[in-house]
Structures are given as structure tokens and as C-alpha cells.
Amino acid sequence: MKPDNLMKLNITLPITFKRINAIFIAALFVISMIIASSASVHAAPIPPGTTGVKWHPGHYYTIQNWANDDPIYMAQVYKELEATPALRGMQMRYLWGWIEKSPGVYDFSSIDKHLEKLTAIGKRLVIQVQTKSFEADWKLIPDYLKAPKFEGGAFPFKDWGSTTIDGYNIKLWNPYVRNRLVALFKALGERYNSHPNFEGIGMIETAMGQAVTPLTTAQTDGWFNNLIIVQQKARTFFPNTMTIQEINYPREYLKQLTTAMVDMGGALGCPDIYPDEPGLNFPPNPHSPQGAYAYFSELSGVVPIAPTVEKVNYLNTRGDKLGHVPTIQELLIFGRDELKSNYIFWQRLPDYVDQVLEVMSWKRQTGTPSGGLRAACPSVYPSCITD
Predict the structure, then answer these.
(1) pTM of the entire predicted model
(2) Which pLDDT tens digit goes with each residue over 43-78?
(3) Strand spans (E) along the chain
(4) In what helix (H) or strand (E) does residue 7 lie, and over which residues does it extend?
(5) Which residues is 132 bridged to in the sheet?
(6) 106 in the Ramachandran plot: left (φ > 0), alpha (ψ -120 to 50) or beta?
(7) pLDDT tens digit string along 259-318?
(8) Gyration radius of the chain over CA positions
(9) Which of 6, 140, 346, 347 is the most exposed place for a label (fewest CB within 10 A)?
(10) CA–CA distance from 318 to each of 87, 270, 272, 273, 315 (Å)?
């Protein structure tokens, strides 16, 4: 029908029908305003000047980074999250090279999509910026970082005694690499700090990998000094959001790093819950630095404690496989009682997801919002935002 005919039809409609139509349109407008109002309340941004930090401790999924945009996999993840009150959200991992396409040009579309979906179901998002890869062909860094100014941006590492490259780590001792990483966190902070369902952001483990070309002491020192600077900057970009640093090795640098994290108000994570791992459980000793786990029990209540259960942790209680195959309950008890965790991230794997969900249905996990984990606001925070 032509537009002029539509206008004639409208003119000749009975007055009663026009009134009904007007009432219907008005009703739709009111309903839409109610929906919009309720959505804005549900995801109202944190007001500028707020000093508290978002605080929703408990159990979260960790998603395999290859699955971030797999619609079938993620549909099942969202279904499980909705059906499991003890799971408060999920952690997603993004390689630096996936996010930054060229200098200062960022693609946050995947993060935005998942944050919107999680907000709609009352769940929360934690992301990890991955600056270490575990496959040689992963796109770890933006292409521009391969320029001489950045010393190529990343170095290859391998297992002891092996000639096969297992992955890459960034050359964080280079000040230009550091500054570009700081710029990434600034852009992320401007976009997500004030979002109430953006729960946290973290960086990958401190274990650097066995470099193919051995690193000098100056390079290693510079790497950790710059890591602290990046984390300090991240705290300023995320004043209302938990910022996490995973720690494991080398033990010689953990005291320096954990002290800095306490001073800045950061959180401590670990890429593994290994109940029997000697290096992580290494006791305080006058002749050798203590393992990462000792810092967790010491600093619980001071800073957030947020370790992760990875695939290897489901398989054995030790990295060298000289332990035993643990139960999900055993991993939970160690993370809860020995590490004194506030958050535990459970890597979602098809072979173990049913067992994890079963444990999440037990009364100890469903009885409190924190799923039985420590819920008190850490003393480094001025206050906690729990709504």
C-alpha cells in the first residue's frame, strides 16, 4: 500500500479505534519505560567518587579461552550459571593480541557481549589479560609490538631439557612494552570500572617460563619491577574493582610482589590449587624463600584471595603427578580452609563439570552467597560494595 493511501486509511478509521490504538501505544510506552528503568537500576553505574570496591566473593567458572565465542559451549555455560545459585559468575581469559588490534585501537566486543548476558541473569564477570601463551601459535601480542623498539615484544620458552617452544611471554622489562600494557588497562578501566557486574580483572601467573635464550638478572629484575608498576596503574584505573595478580614462581620474587600488592590494595590469585605441590607449599625457611601458598594464608583478610582450579588440578594433587587424583571436595576444602580463599575459579571442563555442579549444590555452598568461602571485606579496601 502506498504511503498516501495509508494516510487516507488513517483519516477514515473510526474514532473509537483511534482511541484504542492511542491507549495501546501509551501503554506500550509506559511498559517500555518501566522495563528500561528497571534495567538501568539493575546495572546502574557506580557513581564517580565512590571509594568502595565491588565485593561478591564465592565460586566462579573459568572459561577456556578458545570457547569465549563458541555459541554452543557458552549457551550451556549460561544455562548452568542460571541453574546454580552457588556460581556467582565466570572468569574469561583474553590474550593481549586479541584485544588490541593496533596501537590504541581495542576490540571489547566479546567482553561487552558476555558482560551484558551475565548482567541480565544477575551474575558477574572477571577477566584475565593473558600476557603468556601456552601454545607457540597463539596470537599473544599485537603485531606492532614485534618492532625493534619493543625488542620483538615477547620471548619463547620451553620445558627443561626440551627444544620445543611451548609458548611465549612478554618482554615486560622493556619500558615501551610496559607502557603499552598500562595503556590497555587504562582503556579497560575507563570502560568497565563503574559497571556493577564487572567484578574483577587480573593478570596471568608470575612463572616466566624457561626462556630459550636465558634471561639476565637485569631482565628478570626489570620484568618484576615493571609488573608491579602495571599493577599499581591498574589499581588507579580500577578504583572500584578487584585487581588480581596470579603468583606461583619464582619464589625469590614473591615477597617483593606480594608486599607491593598489599600496599596498593591488590588481590592475590594462583593458577593452580595443588594440595601437595612442594614448591607452592614450601614452608618459611631462613635459607630459602617460602612458597606462594604461605602468602595466601598470611594475607587472607587483608587482601582478596582468589585461586583457580585448572585442568591439571583435577588430574593430580602435584604437578609432577606423584600425588593422587583428588576429589572435587578435596580441592574445595584445600582452597577454602588452607588457602583461606574469598573466590575460587573452577575451570569448566566437560569431564568434570558434573562433579563440580554436584558439589555446588551441597548445603555448605548454597547456604551463603559466598558459597562457604570467606566473605569479610578485606582490610585493604576502604569499604566493600555488596549490592
Answers:
(1) 0.88
(2) 789 999 999 999 999 999 999 888 888 999 999 999
(3) 53-54, 58-62, 87-95, 100-102, 105-106, 124-130, 154-158, 167-170, 198-203, 210-211, 242-246, 267-270, 305-309, 343-347, 384-385
(4) helix 3-12
(5) 169
(6) beta
(7) 999 999 999 999 999 999 999 999 988 889 999 999 999 999 999 999 999 999 999 999
(8) 24
(9) 6
(10) 26, 14, 10, 9, 9
